[in-house]
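Researcher: Good morning. I'm working through a list of sequences from a screen, and I'd like to move beyond sequence-only analysis. For each chain I'm collecting a predicted structure so we can compare shapes side by side. This is the next one on the list. No need for commentary yet; just the structure.
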Amino acid sequence: MSEPVQLVLADVDGTLVTQGKILTPRAIRAVHALREKGIRFAITSGRPPRGMAMLIEPLGIDLPIAGFNGGVLVHPDWSVIDTKRLTHSQVKTVLAIIRDHGADPWVYTSQDWFVSDLDAPHVSREEWTVKFAPRVDDVSRHLDDVVKITGVSDDRELMKNLERDLQQALGKTASAACSQPYYVDVTNQDANKGGVVATLETLLDIPASAMVTMGDQPNDMLMFAKSGMSIAMGQANDTVKAAATHVTTSCEEEGFAIGLERYVLGDVTA
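Model: Good morning. Structure tokens for this chain:
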């Protein structure tokens, strides 16, 4: 990276926080150290915006927060900057494909999270993570105002096939990518992490070439490709690692803080 770093944009789950969803003291110190060097910090996630509320105070978040992989962009006071929705037709198509594969569909509108069964895999874990409860309903009743649909299954091979088939069916009309091995997220074609880089570039007047992005999943590769430097987490798969400029340790081994200390804080023009 040939120019000074002006902004770090980080994924949340598996990057900023541990698998146990813990924000470590060392991670907090690293973010504050960025600011001491005049480097700004922002977050993006497949989580709903309010599912990142617990990060705002300890990290002093003062920049737009990109929830739903960029589907909804909000200020830290929750005022909405922009919302990118899926069409009615896209929602019907995606729900049919997810069900055909035997995965469980979750539907997120701009206000709510709908599931068909509270006892389905990962529902209680996700509720604990984002700190708000889903609404139980037939998700097919909610086809409008949809910002994200997530297909859920613990069958990793099934999820790879689901991701591939969604991408083939949607083409360039929507974004479909794994955000965890057990989640495939579908969002508006412009609601992806590469789009978050472009949006922040415009809003903050910071060139993408002066940004560092950090992540661990295939959907993070889109922001890696747009930024001047990228750092993959140690537990990422080989494809994600190969797409990054650098690889740090895993999220269980302080990989977020170590990545910043080694590649950003040590020498911001490295």
